[in-house]
Amino acid sequence: MWVGLSREPTREVIEQALARHAPGARVWWGDLADPTFDAEIALSIDPNPSEFPFVINGWVVGGQESQQYELGLRLAGELCVKLDCSTICDGSHHGPTKSPYWSIIWQRGVPFLADDCGTLFADYSEDLSLEERRQPGPVKILHPIQIDPWPFDFSAPSPSTAAVP
Fold first, then answer.
1. What percentage of residues in the chain have a pLDDT greater than 90?
2. Domain-by-domain residue ranges, the chain?
3. Would you give the end-to-end CA distance of the chain in angstroms?
4. How confident is the model over 21-65, as pLDDT tens digits?
5. DSSP state of 28
6. Is 105 helix (H, G, I), strand (E, B) or coil?
């Protein structure tokens, strides 16, 4: 799960949005490889030198991995309105073909299908030279899109039903 934003979010705002869509899920700010990791959602906020300079990277674990796509859509839509900014998230299930470059851009609460192929947002890497960073363009907004909410139940496992290692 990832969400790019044109305005810097706070951890508090992100956690409030997650609490509405994933009630009871514990949030971890940091690396999944940390031996003290104990949560259902791991998050980080990373820089991106594009029109979406803040990217929330999230990993859903603990049996809820299949909910990542929908959670990303819901988080992007809510943060767009709450922070009054543009957001972008994975749109690969909404594009006309199977491609990882379909995205959803949210502007003023309205979702648009977008193509992020060949863009600084999608193709950025710290290994790119300054000249290579100048070549890709912005994400291309194609058209408004109707997003019907998918059935969604992000229930954090209770201690009695959680898998025991």
1. 58
2. 2-144
3. 25
4. 888 889 999 888 888 888 989 999 999 999 999 999 999 887 777
5. E
6. strand
Q: Look up residue 56 and give its amino acid.
A: I
Torsions phi, psi of 20, nearest 5?
A: -75, -35
User: Is the separation of the CB atoms in 91 and 77 below 8 Å?
Assistant: no
CA dihedral for 19, 100, 114, 94, sign (positive or negative): negative
- Residue 41 · residue 62 · CB < 8 Å: no
CA distance 139 to 124: 12
Q: Could you give the 3-state DSSP secondary structure of residue 127?
A: coil
How many Å apart are CA 31 and CA 132, to the nearest integer? Answer: 29
State the amino acid at position 154 in one-letter form: F
Report the alpha-carbon distance of residue 148 to residue 92 in Å, rounded: 15
* 40 class by beta-carbon count within 10 Å (0-12 exposed, 13-18 middle, 19+ buried): buried
What pLDDT, on the 0 to 100 scale, is given for residue 159? Answer: 46
Query: What predicted TM-score, i.e. pTM, was given to this entire model?
Result: 0.86
- How large is the angle between the packed helices 68-83 and 11-21, nearest 10 degrees? 130
Beta bridge partners of 56: 3, 45
The token pair at 11 is 């951890």
- Contacting residues for 40 by C-beta, under 8 A, at least 6 apart: 22, 25, 26, 27, 60, 61, 62, 64, 156, 157
